[in-house]
Amino acid sequence: PSPLARARQRATMAMTTTMTMSAFASRVSLAGASASRATTASNERRAMRCGPMRATSRARVSSSFAATTRARGDGGVDGVIRAFACARVRGQAMTRGAFAREDGETDAAEERRRRVARAPPRFSSTSSRATGAVDELKEVLNQSISAMTTVTPPFYSEGVIEDSETLSDYEVDALVTDDAVFNAEMSWLAFNWRVLAMAADESVPIFERLRFVAISARNLDEFFAKRVGAIKRQDAAGVENLVKRRGRSVWTPALTLQNVATEVERQVDVQAALLENHIVPALREHDIRLEHYSELSEDVQKELAKYFEEQIEPVLDPRAIDPCHPFPFLGSLSLSIAVEIEDAFKQEKFAIVSVPAPLDRWIRVHKDSSGDDVQRFIPLEQVIEANMEKLFKGCNIVATHVFRVTRNADIERNEDEAEDLLEMMADEVRERRFASFVRLEVQDTMPSYIRDKLVDSLDGITQTDVITVPHRAPLGFGSIDSLPVDFGMDVSLIYPHWAPRTHPRLEQVRGDERSIFAAIRDGDILVHHPYVSFATSTQAFIEEASRDPNVLSIKSTLYRTSNNSPIVNALIKAAENGKQVAVLVELKARFDEARNVGFAQRLETAGCNVAYGVKGVKTHSKASLVVRREGSKLVKYVHIGTGNYNPSTAGIYTDFGLFSCDEEMGNDVVNLFKFLMGHHYQERFSKLIVAPLRMQAEFVEMIEREAQNALEGKPASIIMKMNGLDDPTITAALYRASQAGVKIHL
Predict the structure, then answer these.
(1) Please, are residues 435 and 409 in contact by the beta-carbon 8 Å criterion?
(2) Model confidence at 49: pLDDT above 90
(3) What are phi and psi of 292, to 5 degrees?
(4) pTM for the complete prediction?
(5) Angle at 135 (CA atoms; ends 133, 139), nearest 5 degrees
(6) Is there a catalytic annotation at residue 620?
(7) Catalytic residue among 503, 620, 639, 745
(8) What is the pLDDT of residue 174?
(9) How far is CA 395 from CA 113, 391, 434, in A?
(10) Which of 205, 486, 503, 522 minimizes the number of CB atoms within 10 Å of its CB?
(11) CA-to-CA dists, residue 445 to 96, 185, 398, 479, angstroms
C-alpha cells in the first residue's frame, strides 16, 4: 500500500485524542482537578449525573445540595454539574410547593395563596422553605456563568462522550458517524453556549450583553422550529429509515429529543440567571429598570390600567375553553396566558388570552411623582395579567400563567410533484402557520395540572417538549433587546459606533469619471465585509451596471436580502432600462420564503426572467454576472461572494467577495447560470468548484494531497474558514490528514 494508505490503516486517534484531552483538561482544571483524573471524573459523571431532570425523573432526585457541593471539590466541573442539577430540582420543587394545596388547607386559603401567586415571585418572594434551595441554585448558576468566561460550554453535553480513553478506541470512520462522539444538534447547542458566553463577559458593554442573551434565545427559537421539527419528522418516519441512512450508531429521535431538552433547560436557566443576577442589576446602575407590576406605585398602576383600557383591551381576544369554545389558534413563538377562573356559580373555568404580537412587548413606564430620570419598562403580559378581571367581569380570577409555543417550520415538500414551485412555496408558508407544535415554554411556577392541560391541547406536544423557564425571567428572551431605551450620552452601554471603509481601489473611482468596471479591469478586487463597505462595493457594482448604457445583461442569484432591497431595486431598474436581466431567487431559504416569493413576483412584473431554484437542492451560490460592451468586445464582469446580497447582514457578518473580469472565471459563471437557469449540465469548471457536482470530491482531493506532502516531508498545512463543519467525509479526511502530520487551522 501507498504511504497514505498505510497512514490511514494505522490511524487511530492522534488528532482527536489530543484535542479531546486538551478540552477535557481545561474543563477539569478550571475547578481545581488535574487532567490525569479525566477518566475517573468521566466515569463518576456518568454514574452520578442527575440532570437538570425532566418531569418524569425529578421525583427520584434525593441528593442534598450540601452533598453535591462537597463533591464539587473532588469532582471538578462534574461536581458543579451535579450541584446545578440537584439544586435546580430542589429549587423548582420548593417553588412549586408554594402553589400546591397543603394538607388540611381550605378552598378559601388555597384561593388566597393563588391570588398572591398570580404575579410570579422573585427569589426573595418565595416561601421560607424554598429560600435556601433557591439561593443554593443561584450560587451554582453563578459559578457556571463564571466558568463560561474560560470554558464553553460550561457543562458536558448530555449523552456525548468526551474522555480520551473511550474515544481512543474509535476508528476514524466511526468518529464521524457515531452520535455519541458528534451529534449535530448537541454541537449546535454547544455553539449557542458560546453566544451566551458573550453575555457573561463583563468586558462587553452591558446593553450588548443583553443583546447576546436575546440572540441566544432567538437562536433557540429557530433551532426548535427547524431542527427539532426535523427530528420529530424523523421520529414519525420510523427509526429504521434513519438507521438505514446513517447506521446503528445514530441516536434514536426520541433520545435526541431527550438530550436536547436537558441541554436547553440548562441554557434557559443560565439565561435567566444572567439576566436576574448580572445584567438587570448592572442596567439599574445606568438608571434602566425592568420592573415588576407589583413593585410599581399605586399611581403608576392606575396609569397603566388606563393604558390597558385604551390601548390593549380592544385588541385582546379572551377565549373560554369549553365544549362550545374550542382551543384557540396560537401562532408560532406567540405568548399566551392561561387563566383559571371561578364563575359566579363557584364553578371552575379555564380560559386563554393571547398576547397580541402587533403590540410592543415592552411598555415604558412614565415617571412617577419622584421626578427621577430613571427609564422603567414592564412586559406587556404583566399589564394584561394585572387587569385580567376586566376581561372576565363577574368572575373570580384564581390564577394566571404565561406560556409560549413554537410550531414546526420543517414542512415536508415534494418538489417532484410540484407543477409550480412558486405556488408550492406560497402554500407551504401558509401551511406552516398551522403546523404541529414542537415546544411549549412555561414558567416553573405553573402547576402541573395546567401544564398537563396544555400538553393535551397542543397537537404534537409531549412532556419532553415542555421547557421550564425560571419564573424570575420573562418568557421569550429573544425580545428583550427591543427595549426602547434612550441611551442619551451614556455611550458605555453599547459598542462604539463604527463605519465600514471603502476599498482603496474603489475609493479611487468614487466621484471620478472612471467606473467601477475600470477598477476591476486593473485587477481582481477582494473585499472583506463588514470591514469593507457593502454599499460602495457589491451594491455599487449592481447599481452602476443597471445605469450603464454599455451593459447589456445582468444575471444574479438571490438567497436572502433585506426588505427594501437596493439589489432588487437595481435589478428592476436595469430591466426598465432595457437590459436583459435574469435572477435565480431561492424560494427555499428558511424563514425567508414569503419574502422571496414577494421579490420573485416583483422581479417578474418588472420584466426580469426569474427562476426559483434547482429541484432537490438549495442554491446557496452568491454570484452575479454583468456583460458589458467595450468597443468590439463583450467583457464579462463577475462578483462571487460568501455572503448574501443583503446590506443589513453585510454590516454584521464576516464575508468575502471577489470582483473579476478574468476570462476563464467569466466563462465559468456563464456556464454556472446556464446550469442554474436551464438544462445545461457541466461537472467540471476551469476555476470554480461547484456543489453538489464536484465540491466535496475536490476538497477531499486537496486535503489528501496535503497529507501526501506531509508524509513525504514537504510543507503541508490547511486553513479553512467556514460557517459550520459536520460533513462526515470532509471531517474524516481532516482527521487522517492531521494524523499524517498536516497542520490544520479551522
Answers:
(1) yes
(2) no
(3) -110, 140
(4) 0.78
(5) 115
(6) yes
(7) 620
(8) 83
(9) 17, 9, 32
(10) 486
(11) 5, 29, 14, 21
